[in-house]
Amino acid sequence: MTMPNSTEILTVTIRKRPWWFWVVAGLWVLLEVLFLQTALASARESEYRAAAISWIVIGVLAAGGALVWFLHGRSRTPAN
Q1: Can you give the residue ranges of every domain in the chain?
Q2: DSSP 31-53
Q3: What is the DSSP letter of 2?
Q4: pTM to 2 decimals?
Q5: Cα maximum dimension of the chain
Q6: What are phi and psi of 12, to 5 degrees?
Q7: What is the rounded average pLDDT for all residues in the chain?
Q8: Which of 10, 39, 70, 79 has the maximal Cβ count within 10 Å?
Q9: Beta bridge partners of 9
């Protein structure tokens, strides 16, 4: 892609994620849903400690999943 009034060239690289990454991402989503259901059910049954632990696990899984999602897509080689 070239800019009409510039001499710079911008290159966009799109990398396909491997199949095992999508399997791990699916398991991650299932764990998030499982712990969300556990947190909501525990709060409804007045089991506040279990609900709090489930909410903490949800937060840690969400943060870890987002970190892996964004870092996995980055290039391993330095740009020229």
Answers
A1: 19-72
A2: HHHHHHHHHHHHHHTT-HHHHHH
A3: B
A4: 0.67
A5: 65
A6: -110, 125
A7: 84
A8: 39
A9: 2
